[in-house]
Amino acid sequence: MFALLRDRKVRGILFQLLTVIGLVAFLWYIGTNTVHNIEQRGIQTGFGFLNGTAGFAINDTPIAYNETYTHGRVFLVGLLNTLIISFVVIILSSLLGLIIGVLRLSNNWLIAKLSSAYIDLFRNIPILLQILFWYNVVLATLPSPRKSIEFFGSIFINNRGFYVPKPALNSTTISMIVAVFLAIIIIFFLNRWSNKRHENTGEEFPVLLTGIGLIIGLPIIAYFIGGADMNPSYPVLKGFNFRGGKTFYPEFLALAFALTIYTATFIAEAVRSGIEAVSKGQKEAAASIGLSGYQALKLVVLPQAIRIAIPPTINQYLNIVKNSSLATAIGYPELVTVFAGTSLNQVGQAIEIISMTMLVYLVVSLAVSALLNWINFKMKIKER
Amino acid sequence: MKSKIAKISMAAIAVIGLSASVANADTLSDTKAQGYLKCGINSGLPGFASADSKGHWTGIDIEVCRAVAAAVLGDSTKVKFTSLNAKERFTALQSGEIDLLSRNTTWTETRDASLGLNFAGVNFYDGQGFMVHKSLGVKSAKELDGAAVCVQSGTTTELNLADYFRKNGMKYKLVAYDANDQVVKGYESGRCDVITSDSSQLYSLRIKLKNPSGSAVLPEIISKEPLGPVVRQGDDKWFNIVKWSYNAMVAAEEAGITSKNVDSMLKSNNPTVKRILGVEGKLGANLGLSKDFAYNIIKQVGNYGEVFDKTVGMNSPLKIKRGLNALWTKGGLQYSPPFR
Asked: Do A16 and A130 fall into the same domain?
């Protein structure tokens, strides 16, 4: 018996078996204990509550919602708001991070120092404090609806939000949307064609300028083809507040702003580390074949730097999704605020609701990381 | 080899299975053993629960915690307060983090029936109202169509608000915050036109404003809000203790016993007084408490009227009238079943 225990292989298997048994027993204990306690205290269980009427309002809803809808609908509204804020912040913070990261390495002393001061400042203050700060600053500095800041009589800014005209969905707007997509597709193929031509003949084609022209010009042409009437609904001050038009609420703006400038600092650092990791010889080689500073950055340094910067940037994207749940402090109605907050309080089924919420974050985060891992794989240097 | 693993795992499962089934709650002996009461309260609502500069809690909800501590442990100071926001409160009670929730909580059917909770009484009859900036010139809640309304999320207030505007065919913009402090901040900075809450809370929130006289409470009361202490379902003994600790305060007021005259009342000839104070009968013992449990409450905390007066009533900054909270003999709703 004990002789057997001295056998390394047997011992290894034994300990692994014991660990698995211990883990299963532990989970089983927690599970049964929870079920037992819930039954004893008469707390409702199951997912039936999702069909129950919610009874409360939500201020910022991307899909139709009012208090007669169900808790299941609340879940959807919260989920969509989480996705919207994450998407907006990912786009904005990537752009800002890229710019700041490059500027930090600028030869201009002032620009470089300003960029690094920005990074040091915003990276080192807890994000929750920043959200609360920007929110209360936004509320405190903007005027009341009756004294709104006004542009062209149709755009209004006050402490209830940012109001813009909202185009009706008619032939004009639809053809303009189609035109934008068309422009993007044309630019894609134009870029391909110009690269090929550049490789073959060495001639440059002004893709950037043509692209800008296309993306502005095509929708303008489409505007006139589609009937030249967007028939927008304008925000109008009625009683206490503005009605009509599209509203961006202060909660959304403050959250998007705070998360963007916070996350951009980390992305900027990832970009900088990527650029600095490209060996100096590469830049010198680029200069020696006659590339300008901008060309060297665009054609030689950035393509290599981005490969190095992608993994840390993925982490930041995941953090954005998770940090969006801090919105609960200022009442932006994302998943944690409305579903794991208000709905939970109305129906009291913590285990079901919190598990659903955790599952959502898990799935969203795994999807983001899978997507970016795929991009990372595609961007890898192809060893030949 | 195999048999040994089997034996060990069988033993492990047996032990765990046993310990899972022992979890039968006895809050009374747990509280006695640990020597203090775990009570969940509001983190800051003048009149109901607020801490002074020395960290000493005062408020009508606080006194309920103290009364239960006096009844169970004989000492009203032996309370460990846990401040909770509206969203955390039920989970904290369900999970056993606290044993008594006394946090201006409205008694509703859903909460009573499906959250695994029991309401032990009503220590404050309240109703929901609105407070507006005077500069808006609004005189009635019916004029609030289109207004932005600040509210604490996860409360019955949020549901009543939706009902009221729907019933009257009006629209509103909801601005919901987690914490009461942010609600006040939002209202002060003009994020919303109106703040809605239980009307007693509106008075206490108004004190917190920088310019209290710039805001007015509208006359409409749009809901019934019976606020009371809550316990977990499934421990009837503990439920009874909390119920009768509270009843003792009301009964004492009915019988004219106060914290000042309670010692002389011990010699009273009135049989009701004798039963309440434990001089006659064994009412405390039936609850699993000492026979002088009500004496301890009245001596250390006071009767309902005294508590009301010093926390929210005329001797407090809130100056709320007794109204519905007067004794039933004086046209109110506060009523204790007989001590018999």
From this structure: no
User: Among A107-111, A113-117, A211-215, where is mean pLDDT lowest?
Assistant: A211-215
- CA-nearest residue to A242 within chain B is B146
Which residues on B lie below 8 Å from A28 (Cβ)? 13, 16
Q: Which residues of B228-237 are buried (b: 16+ CB within 10 A; e: fewer)?
A: bbbbbbbbee
Of all helices (H) and strands (E), which one includes residue B238?
A: helix B236-255
Of B20, B87, B176, the CB nearest to A29: B20
Q: At what angle do helices A71-104 and A250-277 cross, to 10 degrees?
A: 40
User: Is A267 inside a domain boundary?
Assistant: yes
Task: Report CB contact under 8 Å: A345, B175.
Answer: no
* All residues at 6 or more sequence positions from A178 whose CB lies less than 8 Å from its CB, including other chains: A222
The shortest C-alpha distance from A141 to chain B (Å) reads: 9
Instruction: Nearest chain A residue to B132 by CA: give it.
Output: A240
The CATH number that applies at residue A259 is 1.10.3720.10
A27-36 tens-digit pLDDT: 999 888 888 8
Give the residue-averaged pLDDT of B205-232. Answer: 89
Tell me the nearest-neighbour CA distance from A243 into chain B, angstroms: 9
| A93, two tokens | 């913070």
Cα–Cα dist A198/A95, whole Å: 28
Range of the domain at A332: 71-166+232-379
CA distance B225 to B219: 16
Cα angle A246-A248-A254, degrees, rounded to a multiple of 5: 175
Same domain, A20 and A84: no
Instruction: Give chain A's domain count.
Output: 2
Instruction: Tell me the longest C-alpha to C-alpha distance in chain B.
Output: 86
Q: Which domains does chain B have, with CATH numbers?
A: 27-125+226-318 (3.40.190.10), 128-223 (3.40.190.10)
Q: Cα–Cα distance between A368 and B227 in angstroms, integer?
A: 46
Non-local CB neighbours of A270 within 8 Å, separated by 6+ positions: A97, A101, A309, A312, A313, A316
Cβ neighbours of B172 in A, within 8 Å? 57
Is the same domain home to A101 and A236?
yes
ipTM tops 0.90: no
Determine the longest span between alpha carbons in chain A, in angstroms: 91
Do A265 and A119 meet the contact criterion of CB atoms below 8 Å apart?
Answer: yes
Tell me how far CA of residue B153 lies from CA of B101, B176, B196, in angstroms: 18, 5, 11
**pLDDT band for position A383 (cuts 50, 70, 90):** low
Please report residues of B whose CB lies closer than 8 A to that of A36: 20-21, 23
**Interchain CB distance below 8 Å, B21 and A36:** yes
DSSP string, B8-57: HHHHHHHHHHHHHHT----HHHHHHHHTSEEEEEESSBTTTBEE-TTS-E
Considering only CB atoms, A342 lies closest to which of B23, B145, B158, namely B158
